[in-house]
Structure formats: C-alpha cells, structure tokens
C-alpha cells in the first residue's frame, strides 16, 4: 500500500494480529495507519506512488529469489 490508509488492509492486519499471525507491509508516504498495525512496516521514503511501487516490486522480487534459494537448498 503506498498510502497505508486502505481500510481493507488495516482490517486484515488487525485480524492477523488477533490470530497471532506475523505481518509485514510494504508502504510509502510515511506508512499511514497501516504502519502501526503490522509487525514490520517497510516504508519507502517517497511521496511518489510510482517510485514506491517500483521499490515494492523490487523488494517482492528479492523476497521471491530468497525463497527460491532456500527451497533449492532443501532438495
């Protein structure tokens, strides 16, 4: 979420917390309300939606690469 203000994402983060599930959010523009609802807010320091989304995609690719690497070590 670039704004961190999406009511549906805030509700999901609250439900996850109530269920004992850890949460991470990719955010920007200061993190908004969602930043205080998750365990690990990753806030991109920009007010540009396009720049934030580019960084969110890059982070997603890195996470997928790390998961692939870990999964390959298990086989």
What is the gist of this entry?
The chain is an alpha+beta fold and about 80 residues long.
Strand content: 5-15%
Mean pLDDT: 95
Radius of gyration: 14 Å
Total count of helical runs of at least 4 residues: 2
Count of beta strands: 2
Indicate the overall shape.
flat
In angstroms, what separates the terminal alpha carbons?
A: 35 Å
- Main sheet, how many strands, which sense, barrel? 2 strands, parallel
| Secondary-structure class | alpha+beta
Order of helices and strands: HEEH
Give the SSE layout.
Layout: H1 7-18, E1 24-28, E2 40-44, H2 49-73
Parallel strand pairs: 1-2
Describe this entry's structure for a reader.
The protein is α+β, with helices and mostly antiparallel strands. Helix content is 49%, strand content 13%. The chain contains two helices and two strands. The protein has a two-stranded parallel ribbon. The chain starts with 6 loop residues before the first helix and ends with a helix.
Descriptive key words:
75 residues, alpha+beta, two-stranded parallel sheet
């Amino acid at each position: 979420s670039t704004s961190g203000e999406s009511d549906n994402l805030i509700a999901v983060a609250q439900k996850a917390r109530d269920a004992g599930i850890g949460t991470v959010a990719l955010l920007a523009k200061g993190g908004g309300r969602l930043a205080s609802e998750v365990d690990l807010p990753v806030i991109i320091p920009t007010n540009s939606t396009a720049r934030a989304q580019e960084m969110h995609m890059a982070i997603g690719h890195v996470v997928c690469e790390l998961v692939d690497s870990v999964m390959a070590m298990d086989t």
